[in-house]
Amino acid sequence: MNVKVRSMLFCLCLPLAAMRFGAEASPAVDRIERLTQLREASKRERAVALPAGAEAVRNVVYGADPAQRFDVYLPKGVRRAPVFFFVHGGGWANGDKTNPGIENKIGFWLAKGYAVISANYRMLPEAAPLLQARDVAQAVATAQRRAGEWNLDPARFVLAGHSAGAHLVALLGAEPKRLADAGAQRPLGVVSLDSGALDVPALMGMPRLPKLYRNAFGADESYWVSTSPQQQLGRTALPMLIVCSSERRFPSSPCDEGRKLARKAAQLGVRMEVLPEPMSHAEINRELGLPSAYTEAVAKFVDSLVI
Description:
By secondary structure, this protein is of the alpha/beta class. It contains 13 helices and 8 strands.
C-alpha cells in the first residue's frame, strides 16, 4: 500500500478508535475545529529564521490598512540585487507573509545574490481577488520606488506566488497594465505555484466546487472573466512558469489549466512554460528552495529572466 495512503488511513483511524473507547467528539467536528485552528494560526505573523549575514526589514508599509505590509530579506554585501517577490496563499482568506516555506526560499535565493520580498494583502471578506491583485501591484510599486534604500534593482523583479497568491501574480502577469496603473515598473516574469484558478469561468462551472471559490469569486460571470488569467492574457503578458501538482484533480486539474493557458500564450507569442510536479499542493510551496531538481528547474527559469 502507498505510504501516503497508509498515513491517511492511520490519521483517519485515530478519531474512530477514540470513539470506540468512549470519546464524545465526532471525527467531523474534530476535523472542522482543527481546520479552523490552522486557518486562524496561518494569519498570525511568526518569527522567520535568517541565514548568517542576512538582514531583514520587517513590515514595510505600502498602504493604510494593517494588512498592506511586506518584509524584505537582503543578502549580505550585494548591490542592486534582483528580487524574488513572493505572495502567500490561503484561499484568498487566510495566510501570512511569514507562513512556513518562506525560510527555504530566503535561504536559496539569498545565497544566489537575490533579495526576497514576502508580501501580505487584504483578504476576504474585506477584499475580493481584484482588490487583492491591486494590493500586490501597489506593494510591487512601493518596493521598486524604495529599491535604492535596500540596494535592490527595481528593473529586475520576478513575481511568484502560491495557491491564491499564484492566481494573483498570474492575473497581474496576464495583464501587466494592472501593475503599471499602480505605478510599478514592468517585472521580468511570473512563477505561479499551483494555482487552482487560472480559468475562473471554467472553474466556477464545475459541478462540485469548494465553498472557498464561491466566497472568492461570487456569482457574477463578468467578475469571473475580469479575475481570470485565461481570459485576461494578452500579447503584453509577462513570461510565466506555471508549476502544477500532477497529483491534484479536484476541483480541476491545475496542470490541465496550465497547459490550456500555455496554448493561448503560444498563439499570442508569449513565453510560458508548464512544470508538472508529483507533489502535493502544500509541498510545491514548502519544498521550493530545498535541494532538488524541482528547485533547480524553477531557479533556471528565474535566472533566465534576470541574467
